[in-house]
Design a protein that fits this description.
The complex is a heterodimer of chains A (443) and B (261).
Chain A lengths: L50 H14 L6 H17 L6 H26 L7 H18 L4 H26 L3 H20 L5 E2 L5 H7 L1 E2 L2 H29 L6 H24 L3 E2 H19 L1 H11 L1 H6 L4 H27 L1 E2 L8 H11 L12 H20 L3 H28 L4
Antiparallel strand pairs in A: 1-4, 2-3
Chain B lengths: L7 E10 L2 E11 L4 E5 L6 H9 L6 E6 L2 E3 L4 H7 L1 E4 L11 H5 L6 E2 L3 E2 L1 H14 L16 H13 L5 E5 L7 H16 L3 E5 L3 H7 L2 E6 L2 E7 L5 H9 L5 H8 L6
Parallel strand pairs in B: 3-10, 3-11, 6-9, 9-10
Antiparallel strand pairs in B: 1-2, 1-4, 4-5, 7-8, 11-12
Classes of the chains: A mainly alpha (443), B alpha/beta (261).
Pfam families (chain A): BPD_transp_2
Protein name (chain A): Xylose transport system permease protein XylH
Subcellular location (chain A): Cell membrane
Chain lengths: 443, 261
């Protein structure tokens, strides 16, 4: 899948021609509208009704045409919480939910990176090993060699980015399938981690270093959690109103006010309920806050920037993206770099969680959990559809199952089987939704 | 109706692939506000000719003239910069993006060079589609929801975003039904009315006779006649395509009839 067509890299060897200017005029000049011009509305179009009723109708229509989005995972989460909550009341206690919100951050951060790769329709099987490797880089540099913690942190993140650069190069430039490159990486980076950890095998973190603090800090004041919730809701409301106002000013359809209010109220209920629960225990965990900031910023990047649009375009139609002048290898390499860097971030949080970098870091079922979280959360395995929010939702589902099973005292054996079944269910839903979308003309 | 300097002219263009001489001394002219139909049997060299103009292939011999000056087109971007837009047969739209996203793919309107200006793009999209009288349910639905004809007109509209002077359409009606074909042909006429030169590749004689001003026939990589639609009929063109006449150009010259050449 190398870039062999001549229009692959516009920037690389652009030789301006004498006539190298965009012609003005043509169809972009104001043109008298053709005589029999009709407004560009198809009479067969089902037009959404105004108000809440229309909103519900639209929602139903979307569901029946296979645009499930995050509906299945939210339902699954409600079922899981209801089941474990009825089995044992301590599952829904503030303490357990607060711990859960902190424990999902490591896997969730890695899952964000996996979402990016899945959007291209590719897979990265090395994220587990890369997270362990970067945790080892940080631990060995800061603890064993006494390097400044900030520098050590930076080195770990840069290490993740370099791993992504190498894997992305072999995938995008050499043309090796991503599956194989990252499978080799899975083994190779694990070996490098063991090499870096050296003979003693385990490096304990002192617990006072920057990474440990990022993980274990709580903002105990009531105002912190409520303030964060208020800030999030206000930001959403302001952005929605601003967008609607700009659209009205430009004379194009905008979201009705009732719609915006409804969404804001729903978001406010979730946000303040979460803040209330966190405040019942230790307050707002810094790790969760950082996780949410990563999700919001990267989601903005995916939806609202030219770079994000290119990622979606590649996931939709590679040849179309190439003909549109998008440099396919550049996007592929940078996406793999984002994925590996997010794996490094997740690895650091996981190291802080167990207070050490050891030979088992990044092993076990971490890789599967991270990929499962992204898929369970609603990001399509087929590319071109997904959101960073699916990392949060998916990590919550997997974390809830683990936490509930631990409270019930069930063995790992049962846990693995149930998590596997949930992953299978998520992939089945994704495949079925895709088929329905095709049938409904939306895929 | 069509007079003056051609916008785009091919002078003796030849192209060889290994042992195959795909094009031999092909001549063609496209004027502003003219629809030139490029017809010929399979393997006649239509696609090779279009790709040579679009910058996918480089001709081995001959000149491509743009506004009377010889130019070299190394890459598809060069053709786009000149003002030649190409709509390929497979459209190359991204199914998961909406109409606006596809129209502006690769040349998004941005704030500060990074953030997409969705409002401006949506407004421009609506203006463009209105100008072309293109009827689409909404500019915010994914391409996957559109019918084949709607996808074709979106693909053509996308070619127009860069304000080209010449648009090349490769079999735009090949997979379309009656109504959709009519829509696309209407669109072709509207492009002509707006002063664009259109090169239309088609196997469908009815389509060609409906919208073309000039019909260029290729046979086995060579010109086999340039017909003015007002002074020809379908039989004449078909016999030129199939080679039933040895060479229509020489015949016409021998007869001393009218015509652009």
């Amino acid at each position: 899948m190398t870039d062999q067509t001549p229009n692959g890299g516009e920037e690389r060897h652009h030789r301006p021609l004498p006539e190298d200017t965009m012609p003005k005029g043509g169809v972009n000049a104001p043109v008298p509208v053709a005589a029999e011009a009709t407004p560009a509305v198809d009479p067969r179009l089902i037009v959404r009704q105004e108000g809440v009723k229309g909103y519900l109708g639209e929602f139903k229509r979307r569901l029946s045409s296979g645009e499930l989005g995050s509906v299945p995972v939210v339902l699954a989460l409600i079922v899981i919480w209801a089941v474990f909550g009825s089995l044992n009341s301590s599952f829904l206690s503030a303490q357990n939910l607060s711990n859960l919100s902190q424990q999902i951050v490591g896997t969730g951060m890695i899952a964000i990176g996996v979402v990016f790769v899945l959007l291209l329709g590719e897979i990265d099987l090395s994220v587990g090993s890369v997270s362990g490797l970067c945790a080892a880089i940080y631990a060995v540099l800061s603890v064993t060699h006494g390097v400044n913690q900030g520098v050590a942190l930076l080195c770990a993140l840069v290490g993740g980015a370099v791993v992504g650069l190498i894997q992305g190069f072999f995938f995008a430039k050499v043309g090796v399938p991503a599956f194989v490159v990252t499978l080799a990486g899975n083994l190779g980076w694990n070996g490098l981690m063991l090499q870096i950890l050296g003979s003693q095998g385990t490096v304990n973190l002192p617990g006072t270093d920057v990474v440990s603090k990022l993980y274990s800090t709580f903002y105990g004041q009531q105002i912190a959690a409520y303030g964060a919730a208020f800030f999030g809701v206000a930001l959403f409301l302001a952005a929605s109103l601003f967008d609607a106002q700009r659209r009205r000013a430009a004379g194009i359809p905008s979201r009705p006010l009732a719609d915006i209010v409804l969404r804001t109220v729903l978001l406010a209920i979730v946000a303040f309920l979460a803040a209330y629960t966190l405040n019942q225990y230790k307050g707002l965990p810094l790790a969760l806050l950082i996780f949410l900031i990563f999700i919001v910023v990267l989601e903005y990047m995916l939806r609202r920037t030219a770079y994000g649009r290119k990622i979606f375009a590649l996931g939709g139609n590679i040849e179309g993206a190439r003909r549109a002048g998008i440099s396919v290898p550049t996007i592929r390499i940078t996406v793999f770099m984002i994925c590996s860097t997010m794996a490094a971030v997740g690895g650091l949080f996981l190291a802080a969680q167990i207070q050490s970098a050891s030979q088992t870091s990044g092993g076990g079922n971490l890789l599967m959990n991270a990929i499962a979280a992204a898929v369970i959360g609603g990001t399509s395995l087929f590319g071109g559809r997904g959101s960073t929010w699916s990392a949060l939702l998916g990590a919550l589902v997997i974390g809830s199952i683990q936490s509930g099973m631990n409270i019930e005292g069930l063995s790992n054996a049962i846990q693995f089987m149930i998590t596997g079944a949930v992953l299978l269910a998520a992939v089945v839903i994704d495949s079925l939704a895709r088929r329905t979308q095709k049938a409904a003309g939306r895929a | 109706m069509v007079t003056g300097e051609p916008v785009l002219a091919l002078r003796g263009v030849s192209k060889r692939f290994g042992a195959v001489q795909a094009l031999t001394d092909v001549e063609m002219e496209v004027h502003a506000g003219e629809v030139v139909a490029l017809v010929g049997d399979n393997g006649a060299g239509k696609s090779t000719l279009v790709k040579s103009i679009a910058g996918v292939h480089q001709p081995d011999d001959g000149d491509i003239e743009w506004g009377g000056r010889a130019v070299t087109i190394h890459r598809p971007q060069d053709a786009q910069h000149l003002g030649i837009a190409t709509v390929y047969q497979d459209l190359a739209l991204c199914d998961n993006l909406d109409v606006v996203g596809n129209l502006f793919l690769g040349r998004e309107i941005r704030h500060f060079g990074v953030v997409l200006d969705e409002v401006a793009m949506e407004r421009r999209s609506r203006e463009l589609l209105d100008t072309l009288s293109i009827r689409i349910p909404s500019v915010r639905i994914p391409i996957a929801s559109l019918s084949g004809g709607q996808r074709q007109v979106v693909a053509i509209a996308r070619a127009l975003i860069g304000s080209p002077k010449v648009v090349m359409l490769d079999e735009p009606t090949a997979a379309l039904g009656v109504e959709q074909t009519a829509q696309v042909l209407d669109l072709v006429e509207r492009l002509r009315d707006q002063g664009l030169g259109v090169i239309l590749i088609s196997h469908n004689m009815a389509d060609v006779m409906a919208v073309a001003d000039t019909v260029v026939v290729l046979r086995l990589g060579r010109n086999n006649g340039v017909f003015d639609k007002s002074s020809t009929n379908q039989e004449q063109i078909i016999s030129a395509i199939t080679g039933a006449t040895d060479n229509a150009v020489t015949r016409r010259q021998a007869r001393g009839t009218e015509g652009p050449q």
